[in-house]
Amino acid sequence: MSSKSTPGPAPVALEQEDIRTGIAFAFETKAAQTRLQTLNEMEQAFIRRMAEKYQIDPAKYHLRDWITGFEPIQRPLAAE
Q1: Could you tell me the sign of the dihedral formed by the alpha carbons of 55, 58, 59, 60, in that order?
Q2: Res 79: pLDDT
Q3: Radius of gyration of the chain (CA)
Q4: What is the pLDDT of residue 4?
Q5: Of 62, 27, 26, 31, whose CA–CA distance to 44 is shortest?
Q6: Residues of the chain whose pLDDT is less than 70?
Q7: How far apart are CA 58 and CA 55, in angstroms?
Q8: Contact (CB, 8 A) for 61 and 73
């Protein structure tokens, strides 16, 4: 039995302008992901502060909509 493998297709090189554009997209995507993560963390911290302010038990209430405010968590009834 031979251990030689058949080489796969050769890579296709990109033109310099396409490389620059792709790297720019990758850089901007990473920066946007970092900004989004920071904003999500800030929002969660704000929600925790609002729960403290309004004396909300996070085990019993959640905030899905800013207009509605904190709503009781609806748990499904246990099957009998």
Answers
A1: positive
A2: 64
A3: 26
A4: 73
A5: 62
A6: 1-3, 78-80
A7: 9
A8: yes
